[in-house]
Amino acid sequence: ATLPKQQAMKDMFQLVMDHRQHTTALSFWLMLHAETPGIQYDLSDTLQISVDLNTLTPNLPVSHAIRGNFYARNGFLAQARDPYEIAIEQFLEWKQFQQIEMADCALLTKSRLQLISIYYAMGEFNKALDIAERLAMMPVNEKRPFSQVTKLQLWECRVMPTKLYMSRNRAGDIYKAQNAMPKREEVERWLK
Question: In the chain, is it the N or the C terminus that has fewer CB atoms within a 10 Å radius of its CB?
């Protein structure tokens, strides 16, 4: 980053530090770093800010997901797991309370995908695979082919079990990966 950009980041960081109880300031800083991770200059400060935001907003599922994201990015996978599990539970409660369709729950789907990655990275393959298989089997809302969730389901969730088997690469996993792949006809009908 150029010197003016570095100074701007320092100034913004100081503004956030001066307003540690203001959820908008904390959210702004975290989203800035979540969306453009290359500008991040101190992961530990951002991790603490994610914990602060989650403490201020414990009933907001996205704050748990953000905290999980920054724990994972800092290499604390065991600490990242619980916030994602809480986020998923709260997103499901919110979905039911609001009576909305899965096609409107992109953050729920993304949180599940992140949890799969965390379990896999922690060496808990069976837990990761269990979630991945359930996610891959979820029905796609054919009336909402362009929703963000439909795209995630088709291009991430459906192939996640295959990715897991290929990454693990034990004897026989290549065949399991092939069997887990979506069938050609299933994929082609979405390409029309």
Answer: C
28-49: burial string, b at 16+ Cβ within 10 Å, e else: ebbebbbeeeeeeeeeeebbeb
Q: How far apart are CA 90 and CA 178, in angstroms?
A: 34
pLDDT the model gives residue 37: 58
**pTM exceeds 0.90 for this model:** no
> Do residues 73 and 104 touch, judged by C-beta distance below 8 A?
no
Burial-class residue 107 by CB neighbours within 10 Å (0-12, 13-18, 19+): middle
108 contact partners, CB below 8 Å, separation of at least 6: 61, 88, 91, 92, 95, 102
Q: Could you tell me if 65 and 84 are in contact, meaning their C-beta atoms sit under 8 angstroms apart?
A: yes
List, in order, residues 6 or more apart from 70 with CB less than 8 Å away.
30, 33, 43, 46, 47, 50
Cβ atoms of 56 and 23 closer than 8 Å: yes
